[in-house]
Amino acid sequence: MKNRQFRTFLSALFAAGLLTLVFGLGLFRSADLALSDALYQERAASDGKIVLVGIDQKALEVYGPYQQWGRNPVAEALEILNASEECRPAVIGIDVLYSGESDPAADRRLAEAAGRYQNVITACAAEFGSALVESGGDYALSPHSVTAFSEPYEALKTASTQGHINAMMDSDGILRHHMLYLTLPDGTQIPSLALAAAKVYSGGNISEPPTDGHGFWYLPFCGTPGDLAMISISDVLSGTVSPDYFDGKIVLIGPYAAGLQDSYVTSADHASPMYGVEYQANAIQALLWGDYKTEVSDGLQLALLFLLLALGFFLFRRCRVRVSALLWLLFSGGWFLLCLGMYRAGHILHVLWVPAGLTVLYAVCLAVNYVQAALERQKVTNTFRRYVAPEIVTEILKDGTDALELGGKLTKIAVLFVDVRGFTSMSEQLEPKKVVEILNRYLTLISDCILKNGGTLDKFVGDAAMAFWGAPFPQEDYVMRAARAARDMAAGSEALSEELLKTYGRTVSFGIGIHLGEAVVGNIGSPRRMDYTAIGDTVNTAARLEANAPGGTIYISRAVADALEGRIRTTSLGATIPLKGKKEGFEVLTLDEIL
């Protein structure tokens, strides 16, 4: 017993050490960063102190390509914003680099407008690369050296305050950090445009965030792209927006159109790029709030990771499966909660390391016991998983590979047929790609409703589908499950139809039929090609009911109505609906409501 415990202890140390090394080498860095972004970056309503004036598509349509603008439009915008002595912005940041002289009159006008009230911050920027840097008498190659620096032309530089607009992505191409100061080769430090704006707005009463060795700090974004209010510069120039709106606020002027190539993928939203002026606004808001975050050193986190993984592996090996599963859930869930709590307290931990490491160890401990069982069950799973509800797959697996043999059995089932009314005529008016897209949406709705209610999706035939309940194993209340699936389809089709009506001016709906009775259910076909299906008069009758049901109507038989008596509301159509292959007197009802 002691030897076994000792071997388990050594195995725990080895496994924990190996995984710690893997995470320390950064092999899962991108996944960890993505998960951290999803957990940490929470949207928060800004306090309305920041307004974006965008050089957007609307302005480009009014004033032409941006390359032809010159400097007069921005100069005029500054004049309008600062026109009134009583109301003007507290600070105006220009997220556009005016580094060289162009038209003398326009240059002079912009400089005069920027210097009139001393509330304008203009942009400067640096280029980074590798260069030899002296340190203690020795020279070393630094990859973060400033190799070039661009600042406003002399008149504009004299008339305004400068702030750098450099945005530096992480190694995975995501913008998460903000460079607080730009240090030039001569030692001069230039604040970021965001820091300069925040200091002017707060009168210098602002605490600076802690930075790493390269001057960066982790930026908690307050919103995703498009969250902050944006006003087109064309509306400012045309007088559509009153200058009173900008009174006492921080106004940022910058590109806000895709063609101007000033956007970044940020940790706030990996799907939609954020314009540079929005990024500056988020940094300003974070500085004003002062809610700074510090990234805990990797060394400390790796040490903690090693201890937790070693403990987890030891417990997984010692405990039963259910207990191990509970421990894995508690450890992993607890780590997520700890990360979130630490983040709100101002400390950033790697979100993925502990849960991923524990998951790997838990899987390793279970693998030996489950490999053989998984192989035996794989054949059954591959056959049924595409057209049977998950709970049905589970039940079939209990029978083992016998469930894969040809043959069927007589079973009482509820059969549902559904068809998309009006789809054929609509498809004649649309492109094939659109037809397939719309059809897939309807078929997805149908399959979701069937599987959600525990049915077996037998087949798709064009824009129609067949499903049944009560097989391959008895189901509680299986007739009501079929009725609910039909009701869900009808309700879901209404929303889709409204969308199609708005988009294409046409709509479609479902015709549905349900019948209850005995049918042969099983694997039918040949050893080389078989289908798990149901055949018989019950199936044919359900198909006839669906074929006669108008769009938006659910036809059921008297057998279904009797099985659900007192639980549904129906309208009897008597024998007025002739069904092909059925004798006269076959009663058809509409399912109006499930009580």
Give me the count of strands. 23
Secondary-structure-based class equals alpha/beta
Count the DSSP helices. Answer: 18
Name the overall outline: flat
Counting copies of identical and different chains, the oligomeric state is single chain
Mean pLDDT: 87
| Helix content range | 40-55%
Rg over C-alpha atoms, rounded to the nearest angstrom: 34 Å
Query: How would a textbook summarize the main sheet?
Result: 8 strands, mixed
Strand residues, percent: 15-25%
Our measurement of the CA-to-CA distance between the termini, rounded to an integer number of angstroms, reads 62 Å
Which stretches are poorly predicted, pLDDT < 50 over at least 5 residues?
none
Can you offer a commentary on this structure?
The protein is an alpha/beta fold. It contains 18 helices and 23 strands. The strands form six sheets. Strands 16, 17, 18, 19, 20, 21, 22 and 23 form an eight-stranded mixed sheet that branches. Strands 1, 2, 3, 4, 5, 10 and 11 form a seven-stranded mixed sheet that branches. Helix 1 runs antiparallel to helix 10 (298-318), helix 11 (321-344) crosses helix 12 and helix 15 packs antiparallel against helix 16. The two termini are 62 Å apart. The model has no long low-confidence stretch (mean pLDDT 87).
